[in-house]
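Let's do one together. I've listed all components of the complex below, 676 residues spread over two lines.
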Amino acid sequence: MGVVVPLRETRTEPASIQNLVELTAEGMQAVNQVILDKAGSNVDLIPEIANHLISSGGKRLRPMLTLAMADLFGYRGTGHVGLAASVEFMHTATLLHDDVVDESDMRRGKLAARKLWGNQASVLVGDYLLGQAFKMMVDVGSLEALNILSSASAVIAEGEVMQLGAAQNLATDESRYMQVIEAKTAALFAAAAEVGPVVADVEGAGRKAARDYGMALGLAFQLVDDALDYGGSAADLGKDTGDDLREGKITLPVILAIKRGKPEDRAFWTRCLEERDVRDGDLATAIRIMDETDALADTVTRARDFGAQALQALDACPEGPLRDALGEAVEFCIARVS
Amino acid sequence: MGVVVPLRETRTEPASIQNLVELTAEGMQAVNQVILDKAGSNVDLIPEIANHLISSGGKRLRPMLTLAMADLFGYRGTGHVGLAASVEFMHTATLLHDDVVDESDMRRGKLAARKLWGNQASVLVGDYLLGQAFKMMVDVGSLEALNILSSASAVIAEGEVMQLGAAQNLATDESRYMQVIEAKTAALFAAAAEVGPVVADVEGAGRKAARDYGMALGLAFQLVDDALDYGGSAADLGKDTGDDLREGKITLPVILAIKRGKPEDRAFWTRCLEERDVRDGDLATAIRIMDETDALADTVTRARDFGAQALQALDACPEGPLRDALGEAVEFCIARVS
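Okay, and this is what the predicted structure of the assembly comes out as:
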């Protein structure tokens, strides 16, 4: 396990993204307008499904990263708005396809689109949003930003395929798990942050710092998500707790619990995850084993390590209220689980 | 119905794309190498599925259009190879997602990927190929080509969603059908052809001619495909005849047969297409009604009209063996059904 690196204690109030929200409010209003425009289509089903997801109130953390990083590195144009909207569309397309792949019933506390309109429409509307995302990027006209975001698009899909291969396979180890979450989640955070300095024509250390920040934040975010699936309430998370167990996903809490648990627990994990036979009370059993083995606590510790890395990367970014707000966003992502 | 416009009779041998294949052979060898390279991934499932489709021997008509048009308009660089490979990846991604949406069992005479690896992997590997396609386009570096192909990507998905909405709906009319096939099929043919002059820095009439050729060819191609679904043998087509009937797809042969058929036939179409209750002998009944109403013959006539439009568009392109070969490709696409 990684070493516990405490987060910097710069403030006593609970962690919040309020400052980031306020500092990017004007840009996000423009992003939201672009999103509504570009999710439109003469084909009724498309805006219907897109709006269902878009209006269901995600935090829009990823496009905020793009806006904040562009601003932080001195960008004064409007191209960052199109890139931020592209990032959100890429994310939304991934959610639509993920729900089909995971056979999920809920998304952000509402019925998943696939439950309302079917798997077929979810696949195709996801494809449409991805196409629109690339069109928006092209409109911005930065080949380097296109390079970053199209690479992320391929890497995300690669991560999802990797996750599919790792599912129901108890032999999946920590290093494989880290590869999966870096690809399926952190790569988009990293790209969202990196295109900020890129659109501002900032290369070198600044660009690397933005990317490192996004990557570390994305890893922390996913680790916390995976801990919450065994800990938070469904209401908080906007999805059903225990989803990962039911779907046979091998996440870090499970990997640690198996590695450290009693040999006799193994049959339990095999039945739940490999045989996909999850019964009443199994989630409670899983959480009990995770408590006994410090699996959840150490997953959060790992998230804190990456949070500290994200803050360290910020040190190489220009000072100011936006940098502080990006620092608070790290604490916010991790505090969801504390 | 459109007027019958006979295709120019320039040769007596059966229509063939042999000349197009030979004239683009060197470039296509490079395209095939790029396809194999870019379909690679450390995640085993990705090359496995990609190679299944790629090696299953489609004609690669779309990337050949890109190579031929670039060459025809005097391009002497290597960027057309990357664009052609991108076009084929976009097409392959669409096939993977289509098979999931249509619940198809066969593709090009082989088991569909989704039957071998599951819907989940088909969705995700399609996403991966789409991401790789955009990466390749970015590498070529033409923002205009990126614009054309990303727009096509969104339009294709829009067409597929439209088709989903029109399926099982007997009220779908000819104009709606034409919108669907223009978006889902012809838009990629048009884009594949248009990026040829674009990468050669040719604008204006030449660029428009290439696009018009591709669009008309794509429409002819899809009309013939839709006729073949009620006429060709499964072996010729590489898919099951009668698929469209079983899937409740409202194609032109059906639209014409319903419009011109006896009122008492309507119950038959309602049962097959709206209620999706297709029984033994229904395909034969459908074909009999289509014969009685000239529905298949007039679908082919419509294809010939668009074929003539494609040839007309070619008149505005530079003369030479490549232009002749592109003309033969039109006849080849239509001759599949004659």
